[in-house]
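1st attempt posting a full record on here, be nice pls
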Amino acid sequence: AGLGVGALDRGQIPAAYQFFKRTLAVNPSYGPALFGLAEVHRARGEKALASQSYQRYLQLSPKGSEATAARRQMSALQTGK
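the predicted structure (as tokens):
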């Protein structure tokens, strides 16, 4: 997941996607990878998939380190901002 975050920070969206998917294949409940995958979907303009990934993250980590950001991004996706 850390490699995915690094790739995402560098704008390497396809690489980030692959890193997050690999992490989730090993541990489907790993919060940082779910949040990262949501960010990838958001960057690709895949609003429904991003929202689903943010929701899954919040279900598993309602008080996680990215919970506030996930809620903010979901709200932005819903309002179109």
